[in-house]
Design brief:
This protein has about 280 residues and is α+β, with helices and mostly antiparallel strands. The protein has a domain of about 130 residues: Ku70, Chain: A, Domain 2 (Beta Barrel), CATH 2.40.290. Helices cover about 30% and strands about 25% of the residues. It has 5 helices and 11 strands, in the order ββββββαββαβββααα. A 7-stranded mixed β-barrel has the order 1-2-8-11-10-9-7. The longest helix has about 30 residues. The chain is extended, with a radius of gyration of 32 Å. The N and C termini lie far apart (about 95 Å).
């Protein structure tokens, strides 16, 4: 399994070399955008609106916009140094909390945690102590140029790291419009709703659920493949394109030379003085 991060986790005097692996994967079916006319893929190019020209990665610098159209430029060396300084830090478990104390709105992404070289015993110690105490570790971790709050908790026979949003990243519920105040509900209405909830209550078994849309989309694609309904991009005639490009270049060169000759003749033509 691909390693997305290497480092160490420490709690007290115990230091554990570890590796982080993505616990989830994107199963979305990727669709390409084609030009309706020739069936070639659409590509997006980076361009500068001000200069009206296409740019490459070498032309791009990083900056922070602190006010409208006012920027603080950040040098790549400064950013790389800052990144290395943060990534070099060990992940210290700040404290321990109960899992139910953290609202699910804070959870972001999940990662499997495996021990690094020589870290097996310390890994087992942390896993067992968290299981016995029914607590989870709260820590900070630096990943992909961003510091994240995270929890470390037992999951089946391994340790799991789940990154959290910082409190200022969770939007205030006060900003949500049209939320009704407490309404007066009759006892009968409440009892009926509660009864319905109880009747529909089951043990959570995730393997029972599938992405119906993704399944239907793949079936549609496979049916079209069977019926040979695929489309092919138009073949580009490179010889014709090359000749056109050469001819255009010759025209431009001739035009430039003509313009240059006219400009030179104007410079060399003597100006007649009036009598």
């Amino acid at each position: 399994m691909h390693t997305v991060w290497k480092g160490s986790i420490s709690f007290g005097l115990v230091n554990i070399p570890v590796k982080l692996h993505a616990a989830t994967e994107d199963k979305d079916i990727k669709l390409r955008q084609l030009h309706k006319k020739c069936k070639h893929p659409i590509r997006y190019k980076k361009s500068c609106e001000h200069c009206n020209e296409e740019i490459t990665s070498d032309d791009i610098i990083m900056a922070y916009e602190y006010s409208m159209d006012k920027f603080i430029e950040l040098d790549q060396e400064e950013l790389q140094k800052l990144k290395k300084d943060q990534e070099a830090k060990a992940v210290d478990i700040i404290n321990f909390v109960k899992l139910e104390e953290i609202d699910p709105v804070y959870f972001d992404k999940s990662y499997y945690l495996s021990p690094g070289d020589g870290g097996g015993k310390a890994y087992s110690l942390l896993r067992s102590s968290l299981t016995d105490s029914e607590k989870i570790g709260l820590a900070k971790i630096h990943m992909r140029s961003k510091e994240k709050l995270a929890v470390i908790r037992p999951y089946k026979h391994i340790l799991l790291v789940e990154t959290l949003h910082f409190p200022d990243e969770v939007r205030s519920i006060a900003d949500i419009p049209n939320v009704p105040e407490d309404s007066e509900l009759s006892k009968k209405e409440l009892n009926t709703a509660t009864l319905l909830i109880n009747q529909l209550t089951e043990k959570f078994e995730p393997e029972k659920f599938t992405d119906d849309y993704r399944t239907a989309l793949m079936e549609l694609i496979q049916e079209k493949m069977k019926d040979e309904k695929g489309v092919e991009a138009e073949q580009v005639n490179n010889v014709v394109d090359l000749m056109q490009a050469l001819e255009e270049s010759i025209k431009k060169t001739k035009s430039k030379k003509t313009s240059q000759k006219k400009a030179n003749s104007k410079k060399t033509t003597p100006v007649r003085k009036k009598a």
